[in-house]
Automatic annotation (TrEMBL):
Its main location: membrane. GO terms for cellular component: cytoplasm; plasma membrane. It catalyses: (S)-dihydroorotate + a quinone = orotate + a quinol. It comes from Candidatus Roizmanbacteria bacterium CG_4_8_14_3_um_filter_36_10. Residues 57-353 form the Dihydroorotate dehydrogenase catalytic domain. This is Dihydroorotate dehydrogenase (quinone). Its cofactor is FMN. Keywords: Flavoprotein, FMN, Membrane, Oxidoreductase, Pyrimidine biosynthesis. It holds the Pfam family DHO_dh. GO terms for biological process: 'de novo' pyrimidine nucleobase biosynthetic process; 'de novo' UMP biosynthetic process.
Length: 355
């Protein structure tokens, strides 16, 4: 670790984090988003302090160039405020969203909380979004040339979306809006569906086929990555991968949040405290199944599939584990919140020193 990362890590762990973790998690997140966006005027300084660049980390995946294999996962930058600054924080790519066609104010608070002993976050935003049009106009004003930006697309959380066909139209609106924007280098298709009025799920084969068919018909040039649910078995996973590959969609992200509170990674006392809170969980509890599915798909489908490992990355070792399971790229959120913003540069440096 270099001296800049050491100093920032010490400041983060000994001063910022103990204070911030005493305050409301969503308030801190919103404040960081505001400060982060205002730092666009000092990108060089941010990059000097945090990022680590090395040409050996460069990768081209599905025709897209990545300055390093570590990306920001969907859910940290819902509305694109941080789209420009994240490259200077050190990320090789960053996802905006999940973006939905129409705005949604989000589920009732509290909808974000920390579980430090379990190295996890509780999330219940329900696809909070300012809506695709507002987000696209915000991104249009940013200087994103040379950045690798992805848009995660989901369907609006609205009681008016009651059928699969309505939800598909909702997805298509957002894809159509972004597909010709030059700064969009890849898409994520988020198939988790928080709608309360729609009982069907896009993780069901029939619905997933209808959705992917409709998306592919838009003739989108950018590659699409399917965000795979975490708590599915290998058979269910194979069905989704086969359907996607049959439509020439080659990218998969393993994976999303977990629901099951009996997951062995939870500290028992800590998870009990949250028994009255609704939500799903990130971080350590996601690791085992995400890595298992990742390795399974790599073994079964070989190079036909392009894989992103996501979930519970807190250090370079966690990244190496995902690469060894077959990941081409890796994404994170929770690790950065627990370890500090130097984590990405720190990981990149360690990856080059071990290569
Ligand atoms: C606060 C928060 C919000 C999230 N929102 C989304 C989302 O809108 N769309 C999505 O595909 N994943 C979302 N996720 C899941 C993450 O993208 C990722 O799959 C998961 O957190 C595991 O990675 P991590 O352990 O590095 O956080 C969210 C995660 C967090 C922590």
């Amino acid at each position: 670790m270099n001296y800049k990362h050491k100093i920032i890590k010490a400041l983060y762990k000994n001063i910022f984090k103990p204070l911030a973790f005493k305050m409301d998690a969503e308030f801190i997140h919103d404040s960081i988003s505001k400060v982060g966006e205002s730092l666009e005027s000092c990108e060089k300084l941010v990059s000097f302090l945090l990022s680590y660049q090395d040409l050996r980390l460069k990768k081209t995946v599905l025709g897209v160039s990545f300055s390093n294999p570590i990306g920001l996962a969907a859910g940290f930058d819902y509305d694109g405020h941080l789209a420009e600054i994240m490259k200077y924080v050190g990320f090789g790519f960053n996802t905006v969203g999940t973006v939905t066609a129409k705005p949604y104010v989000g589920n009732k608070k509290p909808r974000l909380a920390r579980l430090p002993k379990s190295r996890s976050l509780l999330v219940n935003k329900g696809f909070k979004s300012e809506g695709a049009v507002v987000i696209a106009s915000r991104l249009d004003t940013k200087n994103l040339s040379g950045h690798t930006i992805g848009i995660s697309v989901g369907s609006t959380n609205s009681p008016s979306i009651t059928t699969i066909n309505k939800a598909i139209d909702d997805y298509l609106f957002t894809f159509n809006l972004f597909k010709r924007r030059k700064y969009v280098k890849y898409f994520e298709l988020n198939i988790s569906c928080p709608n309360t009025t729609m009982t069907e799920s896009f993780a069901e084969e029939k619905n997933f086929r209808a959705l992917t068919k409709a998306v592919v018909a838009l003739k989108i040039k950018q590659p699409i990555f399917i965000k795979i649910p975490n708590e599915i078995n290998e058979e269910e996973c194979d069905k989704l991968v086969r359907v996607a590959l049959s439509q020439e969609i080659r990218g998969f992200i393993f994976s999303n949040l977990v629901k099951n509170r009996n997951n062995q990674a939870f500290d028992k006392k800590e998870i009990k405290y949250f028994s009255n809170f609704i939500g799903n969980f990130s971080g350590k509890p996601t690791v085992n199944n995400a890595n298992k599915l990742l390795a399974h798909v790599r073994n079964k489908f070989g190079k036909e599939a392009t894989l992103v490992g996501c979930g519970g990355v807190f250090n370079a070792n966690d990244v190496v584990n995902k690469l060894n399971c077959g990941a081409d790229l890796v994404q994170l959120i929770t690790g950065m919140i627990f370890e500090g913003p130097q984590l990405i540069g720190e990981i990149c440096q360690e990856l080059t020193s071990s290569s």
